[in-house]
Design a protein that fits this description.
By secondary structure, this protein is α/β, with parallel strands linked by helices. Helix content is 54%, strand content 8%. It comes from Methylomonas defluvii. This is Adenosine deaminase.
Length: 837
C-alpha cells in the first residue's frame, strides 16, 4: 500500500511538533546553532515510540536524508527543510492549484494532520513548487468583503483535497449530504490558534477553569495535556501563546520587509515571553490578528518568509520560525486527535479542553466553511447536531444562536456586499425571517445549503451511589431535557421545521441504550419521529458492540428511515479486531451478562448450535452467580426485553399492592401518562418477569456483584462465529430498513484501524475482497462527525474512500459507482423538512 507515510515524513512531523524538540530549542539562545547530534537525539526520542517496531537503521538513513535536505551554506535550516520534505511527499500542483496526492491522502490526514497544521506545509509547497509546474503564487489578494461567503471559505479553510475530474464533476452536480456532524467540534484548530494569539487570556479562560476542576473531565484534561507536554499548565500555555504572538509579529515583519537591517532581534525565549513589541502598526491589517485575520493571510506570510530564506539567510529568523511552528503544533495537539490516540476516552479529552468554546459561540463561520469556495454550496443538506438543555429558555438561547448564524449565512450574497442582516430580537422573529428567506427561493440550485438540526442527548457514566435504581440520575436528567425540548417546540411551532430529529451521543461505554428509551418515546409521541443513536462505535469486546446495536434496534424500536451512528462492531473484520486487541479484556460482569445474552440470541437465530449451547451454559452460570440463585437463560431473556420501561413508574408499581395500580400518581401530561400506562399493562401480563428485572436494576447486592470485574478472552468466540453474529445483526438492520451513518476518519482514529484501507465501509459497499459471503445489503450514509477534531470534512471523507478504491485497482467510474450511493442515501433519507427546497 502506497498510502502510508515515509520514515522521513515521520521525522519531519516529529521535528515540527514534539515537546522534546521544543525543550531543546527553548533552552538555547536564539543565535546559537543547534548541534545536529542534539537535534537527532530529540527527534529520535519523539519518533521511537511512534515506530517502536521499526529497526534503528531505518531511522538513521531517514535522518541522514533529512540532515542533507536541511543543510544550508550558513547552517542547518531545520524547519524549512522539514516543511519542504513534507510538501514534496504529499502535495502536488494541479491546474495552478495545490492539492494532496490521491495516493497519499490517507497518510496525509492520519500521520501529518493529526500532529501538525498543514498550512505551513502548503506555504512551503508554494515557495518551492515541484518540477517547475505552474502553481498560482500567493500574492496579496484583493480586499474581500467579509460577508462574501465563497471568498471567506477560500481564505479561511486550512483543508486541502486531492483532485479527480470525475469526483469533482459528481460533487458539483450532486452536492454532499451530511447526515452526521456535531456543530460543536467542527471548527478547525488553525482558526482557534489565531484567535488564541489575539487574546491569550480570554481564549484560555475556560481551559484554566476546567484544568482546576476536581472532576473526571478536569483530571482527563490534565492527563491529555501532560502527554503532549509534561510541563504544560494553564499559566504555561498562556506564556507560550504570548511568546508565539511575539514570534509571529517579528516573523511577519521580516516576511513583509518591515525590519530594518539594524533591528535588534530577541536574544532568547524568555525575552519573547516578556517583550512588549511595537511593530504592529507597520503590518498590514489582514496579516495581523483580530477579526480580519484569516488562514490565507497566515499561509501568505509563511510563504513570503520561506521565499526570503532563499535570498537572505538568517539562522535567528529560522530558529524563531521553528519555535513558532512548535508552539502552534503543541497547541494544535490539544484540539486534534492524534494518530496514536485510540478510543472514545482519548477523543473525549479533546472535547474537554474548552479551547474551541470562544470561537464556537458564533455559528456563522462554520456554515460559511461548509458552504465551500464556489457560489453553489458544496454541501446540499447539512444535519447539525446540538445538545438540548434542561430548561426551555436555555434551548431558546442556543437555537437562536444557531439559527441566527444560519440566517446571516443565508442573507450573504457575492453580489451584495452589505447584506449581513442583524439577527432578530426574538426567536419568533428569527423564525419568521427564515421563512421569508425560504419563500424567496434562497435555497434553490444549492446557492445556499439546507439545514436541519438534530438534538443529541449526552451519555453520562453512572454514579456508583445512584439509587434507587440503575442510572437514576441520568434518567431524571434525560427526562427533564426531553420535556424542555418538547416545551420549546410547543412554544415555537415553526421551530419544528428546523429541529427534525433526536440522537444520543458521546461514549457508549458510559450509558446503555435502555437508559434513553423513555426519553425517545416521549420525543416520538411529541412529533420528533426521526431518530438516530451512536452505537457500536467503541466497545470493550466486539460482542459488546454488537449487543449495543441490537439493543438500540429492539429497545428503542428503530424502524424504516431511522439511523445508527458508526456501527463499527457490525462491520469491522472480527479477525482484525481479535489480532489488534490484548488477549484478555477486563470488564464488569453485569455488562458481560448482557453481552452473552445478546450473543446467545443471535447464535440461535443463525443456527450455530454448538456455540449457542456453550454460551447458554456460561450465561446461566454467570446469571446464577450475580443473582445468587439459579436463573434460566429463557427467564433472563424474558425479563431483559423490558429494560426500556420507564423505571420511575416501574418503581411505583413494585411498591404498590398487586391489586391496585399506581394509586395517587398523576402524570404531568399525556406523554407521561402513556409511560405509566405502559408499565401498568406490562405488570398485568408479565409480573414475574418485571420482578426479576427490578431485582437486576435495584437490588444493591445484585448491582455490586454486577460491577465486579472479570477477564474475557478477546477470542471468546472464533472470528468466524463473530462474523456470523455480525451478519445476523446486518439482516436485522436490513429487515427494519434502518440506515447506518458511516464516519471513516472518526472510526480510523477511534477504532483499531491503522489506515483507511481497513475501514468497514468497503465491506458495506459490497467491494469484492471486503464483502463477506452471507452479508446482508444494508443502507449506509456518509458523515464527518467532528471535522475540527479529525482535521477534515465531508468532502475529505468522500475522497478518502475514493482513494482506497482506486488503490485497490478500480478505475474512476467503478470507484465512484461504489461510493456515490453512500452520499445519495443521505439525500434520500435526510431528516430535513421536505418543504425546505
Amino acid at each position: 500500500m502506497t498510502n502510508t507515510s515515509s520514515t522521513l515524513a515521520l521525522l519531519c512531523t516529529s521535528l515540527l511538533s514534539s515537546h522534546k524538540v521544543f525543550e531543546l530549542l527553548q533552552a538555547q539562545p536564539l543565535h546559537t546553532p543547534i548541534r545536529a547530534e542534539a537535534m537527532r537525539e530529540a527527534v529520535y526520542h519523539a519518533y521511537q515510540p511512534w515506530a517502536a517496531r521499526v529497526p534503528d537503521h531505518v531511522f538513521e538513513r531517514a535522518w541522514q536524508k533529512l540532515a542533507t535536505q536541511t543543510a544550508n551554506r550558513d547552517g542547518t535550516y531545520w524547519s524549512p527543510g522539514a516543511l519542504q520534505a513534507l510538501a514534496d511527499e504529499f502535495l502536488t500542483p494541479r491546474h495552478g492549484q495545490l492539492h494532496v496526492k490521491l495516493e497519499k491522502f490517507g497518510a496525509w490526514q492520519q500521520s501529518v494532520l493529526s500532529r501538525l497544521s498543514g498550512v505551513p506545509v502548503q506555504a512551503a509547497a508554494h515557495a518551492w513548487p515541484q518540477n517547475c509546474v505552474y502553481l498560482s503564487r500567493l500574492t496579496s489578494p484583493d480586499r474581500l468583503c467579509v460577508s462574501d461567503t465563497n471568498n471567506w471559505s477560500r481564505r479561511n479553510s486550512p483543508i486541502l483535497y486531492p483532485y479527480d475530474p470525475l469526483v469533482e464533476d459528481y460533487l458539483e452536480r450532486e452536492g454532499l449530504h451530511e447526515t452526521h456532524l456535531h456543530l460543536n467540534g467542527s471548527t478547525h484548530a488553525e482558526q482557534c490558534w489565531l484567535r488564541a494569539l489575539h487574546q491569550p487570556e480570554r481564549e484560555t479562560t475556560d481551559f484554566a477553569t476546567k484544568w482546576h476542576e476536581n472532576s473526571q473531565s478536569g483530571a482527563k484534561l490534565r492527563e491529555l495535556s501532560r502527554t503532549i507536554n509534561p510541563a504544560l499548565s494553564p499559566a504555561e500555555l498562556r506564556r507560550q501563546l504570548y511568546a508565539a504572538r511575539a514570534l509571529r509579529t517579528w516573523l511577519v515583519a521580516a516576511a513583509t520587509n518591515k525590519l530594518a537591517d539594524d533591528t535588534s532581534l530577541p536574544v532568547n525565549f524568555t525575552e519573547l515571553q516578556e517583550a512588549s513589541l511595537d511593530v504592529h502598526d507597520t503590518l498590514e491589517p489582514d496579516l495581523y490578528l483580530g477579526e480580519a485575520c484569516c488562514i490565507e493571510g497566515e499561509r501568505r506570510w509563511l510563504y513570503q518568509l520561506l521565499h526570503r530564506f532563499d535570498c537572505q539567510t538568517s539562522l535567528i529568523l529560522e530558529r524563531m520560525l521553528h519555535l513558532y511552528l512548535l508552539l502552534q503544533n503543541l497547541y494544535y495537539r490539544l484540539l486534534v486527535q492524534s494518530e496514536e490516540q485510540y478510543g472514545l476516552e482519548q477523543f473525549q479529552k479533546l472535547t474537554w479542553t474548552e479551547l474551541r468554546v470562544p470561537v464556537e459561540k458564533d455559528y456563522l463561520n462554520r456554515f460559511r466553511l461548509m458552504h465551500g469556495e464556489t457560489w453553489r454550496s458544496r454541501t446540499d443538506c447539512l444535519e447539525g447536531r446540538f445538545a438540548p438543555k434542561d430548561l426551555p429558555n436555555k434551548n431558546v438561547t442556543l437555537v437562536r444562536s444557531i439559527l441566527g448564524g444560519y440566517l446571516r449565512y443565508l442573507n450573504e450574497s457575492a453580489h451584495d456586499k452589505n447584506c449581513s442582516a442583524l439577527e432578530a430580537d426574538s426567536l419568533s422573529e428569527l423564525l419568521q425571517d427564515l421563512d421569508d428567506q425560504l419563500h424567496k427561493g434562497t435555497l434553490k440550485n444549492r446557492s445556499r445549503m439546507r439545514l436541519a438540526l438534530v438534538a443529541h442527548f449526552i451519555k453520562q457514566p453512572e454514579n456508583p451511589s445512584d439509587s434507587p435504581y440503575h442510572f437514576y440520575t441520568l434518567r431524571q436528567s434525560l427526562e427533564r431535557q426531553a420535556h424542555a425540548l418538547i416545551a420549546t417546540l410547543e412554544n415555537y411551532p415553526n421551530l419544528r421545521r428546523w429541529i427534525r430529529g433526536i440522537d444520543a451521543a458521546a461514549n457508549e461505554l458510559h450509558a446503555p441504550p435502555e437508559v434513553f428509551a423513555s426519553c425517545y418515546r416521549l420525543c416520538r409521541r411529541a412529533g420528533l419521529t426521526r431518530r438516530s443513536f451512536h452505537a457500536g462505535e467503541d466497545f470493550p469486546h466486539i460482542l459488546s458492540g454488537i449487543r449495543t446495536m441490537l439493543d438500540v434496534l429492539e429497545i428503542l424500536e428503530l424502524c424504516e428511515g431511522d439511523r445508527i451512528g458508526h456501527g463499527t462492531a457490525m462491520g469491522i473484520n472480527p479477525a482484525l479486531w481479535i489480532a489488534r486487541m490484548p488477549g484478555a479484556i477486563t470488564m464488569p460482569k453485569g455488562d458481560w451478562l448482557l453481552d452473552l445474552l445478546a450473543t446467545w440470541r443471535l447464535l440461535r437465530r443463525a443456527g450455530i448450535t454448538d456455540d449457542a449451547y456453550r454460551v447458554e451454559c456460561d450465561l446461566a452460570e454467570l446469571a446464577s452467580e450475580l443473582f445468587d440463585r439459579d436463573i434460566t437463560c429463557t427467564a433472563l431473556e424474558r425479563a431483559m426485553r423490558f429494560r426500556g420501561l420507564n423505571l420511575f413508574y416501574l418503581q411505583q408499581a413494585q411498591c404498590t399492592p398487586k391489586q391496585d395500580w399506581f394509586p395517587g400518581i398523576s402524570p404531568l401530561n399525556d406523554l407521561q401518562r402513556t409511560e405509566a400506562e405502559q408499565v401498568a399493562w406490562t405488570m398485568r401480563s408479565h409480573r414475574i418477569d418485571l420482578d426479576l428485572l427490578w431485582e437486576w436494576l435495584s437490588d444493591e447486592n445484585v448491582r455490586n456483584r454486577s460491577r465486579a470485574l472479570t477477564d474475557i478472552s478477546a477470542n471468546y468466540l472464533t472470528d468466524q462465529a463473530c462474523l456470523r453474529i455480525q451478519q445476523e445483526l446486518m439482516h436485522e438492520v436490513a429487515r427494519r430498513r434502518v440506515l447506518i451513518e458511516t464516519l471513516p476518519s472518526s472510526n480510523v482514529r477511534i477504532s483499531q484501524y491503522q489506515n483507511f484501507g481497513e475501514h468497514h465501509s468497503l465491506r458495506w459497499m459490497g467491494v469484492p475482497g471486503f464483502k463477506q459471503d452471507g452479508d446482508a445489503a444494508i443502507m449506509v450514509t456518509l458523515g464527518s462527525d467532528d471535522p475540527g477534531i479529525f482535521a477534515g470534512d465531508l468532502r475529505g471523507e468522500f475522497y478518502q474512500l475514493y482513494a482506497v478504491l482506486r488503490e485497490h485497482g478500480y478505475n474512476d467510474r467503478d470507484a465512484l459507482g461504489f461510493l456515490a450511493p453512500l452520499n445519495e442515501r443521505g439525500r434520500e433519507y435526510r431528516f430535513h423538512d421536505s418543504s425546505i427546497e
